[in-house]
Design the sequence.
């Protein structure tokens, strides 16, 4: 469904991605793991159309996404929950969600989509008239995920959704992702919280220094010595060995 | 005492037009991060539109809003396609610089064109009701100026409704808040820019019409109105059209108070003082987010 090959990108003169190749199949949950500065956000932003690739290809159902403006990529069914949520702070929960359905393909069905989001996150239904600024971090993250879902994506990409959230809320968000995935939406998840990401992901990729340095099933990555040493800390290695 | 009250009242009345003039500039700057220093010249063009509609076709100057507003909307779209649309392709930090160059060029060109076509004479629109006055105790309220204040307020309310109810109005607000997030929700931000610029120009045209009805128009009024609008935008801050309108009223009254206290020549100084003080003390403005 999504085929990225030889992707290169960066900012100004600084190269961030050097030849990234990966793919996501329909209905999969794929985690992208890696240290800070590895290029995880850049990779998602390239797919979403916010950052221009220097080279390589991003194919979506066979079409090259590189030629499309970001709003047309949403129209094709690829949605991104950006790092830091990036909600419209002056607007209410419902206004934020409705804007998520701005693409012509989904605007007509926004009422039904709204009900689905409220069913997924009932707390948002109670606070639909509240300005998003007044929400807690966890609720804001729910709005961010909900806003992306309003575009009825076939691929939902999330950039660090657990950042700054209490463990209980991280679990709630991951649970929601699993529920979304059961409805047939593929999920591409960038996470610092490796155990959390691998607990829901079918597969994962390791991105270091702008290159894919490993891939495997969630369980295999969890057991991988390099992953344990680099991302789970010395404590986990000691317990594991 | 009555003299002072009368002067403050007149200041309040012109303040409504300051607010309307600033609303267009604020909308364009807030959404596109582009400073259109030719905004005053667009106000001037709107004024001439009303003047010629009245002089040649006998259209009532208030009724001419029905023609001037759509025509200005169209002019705004043309200016976006021809000039300002190129600026928004530039990186955010270089946008203001580039827009200043384009804006000054446009302002000079429109000013020269207006002098060439219509001479440098000051024009006003004579109407049968022009001298009508509403007496309120010792105060005399010129009816035409009162009408311009009310119309300015109605236009601001209409704009507010458009931005809060209309699908593309919401898109314009979203783009103003965070253009990347707007893109991610599927908004074509170029179209949001175009609409914001056209709406801002339409507001300038409407303001120009009202200025010409209540006062007068000449090719050289542009710079003065750009400055007034800029002062109000800085005073009120971005993000609230009603706040901008109130900012205009504050400037109008402050100018009148300053003229009454220190003498006529000091009328213009107070705006610049407000400009500097607000930037130093509260850079996001009175009502800014």
Sequence:
């Amino acid at each position: 469904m999504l085929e990225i090959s030889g992707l290169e990108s960066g900012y100004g003169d600084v190269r961030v991605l050097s030849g990234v190749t990966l793919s996501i199949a329909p209905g999969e949950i794929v985690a992208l793991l890696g240290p800070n500065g590895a290029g995880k956000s850049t990779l998602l932003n390239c797919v979403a159309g916010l950052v221009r690739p220097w080279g390589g290809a991003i194919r979506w159902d066979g079409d090259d996404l590189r030629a499309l403006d970001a709003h047309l990529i949403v129209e094709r069914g690829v949605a991104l929950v950006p790092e830091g949520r990036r909600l419209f702070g002056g607007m209410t929960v419902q206004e934020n969600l409705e804007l998520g359905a701005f693409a012509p393909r989904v605007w007509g069905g926004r009422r039904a989509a709204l009900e689905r989001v409220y069913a997924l996150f009932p707390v948002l239904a109670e606070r639909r008239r509240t300005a998003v600024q007044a929400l807690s971090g966890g609720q804001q993250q729910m709005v961010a995920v909900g806003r992306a879902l309003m575009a009825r994506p076939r691929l939902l990409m999330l950039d660090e959704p657990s950042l700054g959230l209490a463990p209980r809320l991280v679990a709630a968000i991951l649970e929601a992702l699993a529920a979304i995935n059961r409805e047939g939406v593929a999920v591409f998840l960038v996470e610092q919280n490796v155990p959390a990401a691998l607990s829901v992901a079918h597969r994962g990729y390791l991105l270091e220094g702008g290159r894919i340095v490993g891939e495997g099933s969630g369980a295999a990555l969890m057991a991988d010595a390099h992953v344990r040493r680099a991302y789970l800390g010395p404590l986990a290695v000691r317990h594991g060995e | 005492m009555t003299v002072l009250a009368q002067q403050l009242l007149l200041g309040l009345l012109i303040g409504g037009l300051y607010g309307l003039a600033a609303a267009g500039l604020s909308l364009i700057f807030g959404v596109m991060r582009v400073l259109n220093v030719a905004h005053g010249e667009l106000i001037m063009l709107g004024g001439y539109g009303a003047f010629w509609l009245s002089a040649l076709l006998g259209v009532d100057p208030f009724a001419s809003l029905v023609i001037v507003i759509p025509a200005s909307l169209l002019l705004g779209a043309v200016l976006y396609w021809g000039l300002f649309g190129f600026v928004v392709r530039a990186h955010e930090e270089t946008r203001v610089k580039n827009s200043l160059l384009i804006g000054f060029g446009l302002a000079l060109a429109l000013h020269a064109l207006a002098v060439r076509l219509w001479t440098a004479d000051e024009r006003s629109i004579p109407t049968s009701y022009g001298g009508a006055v509403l007496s309120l105790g010792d105060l005399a309220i010129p009816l035409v100026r009162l009408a311009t204040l009310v119309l300015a307020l109605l236009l601001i309310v209409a704009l507010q409704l458009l931005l809060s109810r209309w699908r593309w109005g919401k898109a314009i607000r979203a783009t103003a808040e965070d253009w990347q997030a707007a893109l991610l929700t599927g908004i074509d931000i170029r179209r949001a820019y175009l609409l914001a610029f056209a709406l801002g120009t339409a507001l300038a045209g409407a303001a120009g019409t009202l200025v010409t009805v209540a006062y007068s128009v000449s090719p050289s009024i542009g710079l003065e109105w750009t400055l007034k609008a800029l002062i109000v935008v800085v005073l009120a801050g971005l993000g609230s059209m009603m706040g901008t309108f109130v900012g205009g009223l504050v400037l109008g009254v402050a100018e009148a108070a300053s003229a009454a206290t220190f003498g006529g020549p000091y009328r213009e100084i107070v705006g610049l003082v407000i400009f500097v003080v607000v930037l130093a003390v509260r850079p996001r403005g009175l009502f800014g987010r």
